[in-house]
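Exercise: predict the fold of this chain.
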Amino acid sequence: MSIKKEITKGALSLAALAVGTDAALAQDWAGNYAGLSLTSNNGATPAHFDGDDYKLGKNGVAGAFVGKRWDVGSAVMGAELDISGSGLQADLLNNGDTYSMGTFVDSKVSVGVPLGKALLYGFAGLSASTVNGDGEKYSAWGTNMGVGVDYMVTDKMSVGAEVMRRSFKNSYGSNGSSDGSTAVSVRVAFHF
């Protein structure tokens, strides 16, 4: 056998060993976790009064989350509750009032695929907040969906990133709807 074939065979054996080892590590995703996030929110408030669409955005908003994951064969399922500030605010074009979104509360159900120390996942769920403005506070509710990736740094800590799209309506009425907002987050979680 040639040296080139031996090197190729050795490299394939090491790759198979690494994949096997990483697959075993993927079992570590099951269990409880909690953590902190830092988010950039961009989008629109669910307030289209007088036909205006109020675009807004904010960087560096803090949040916290808690969740649980279960191994189900070759996949990982999870449930999570996420609470974060919105920082979203806009001045109305017609009357100079300021509208803002309150704290976001997001519940999410996820399905992921472990790839060694990484977990790629998609999720969907429900979101709630408030719209504050015009001297009033309106409840806002809707849906969320997105994708994320977590990477296990140690047995007890992971870091990750997530992109979530929220779509809201509010209690003001039929013209209180929105194209929604997009959140991009970096996250640190502790597993226990």
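Check your answer against the key: Residues 4 and 110 are 44 Å apart (CA to CA).
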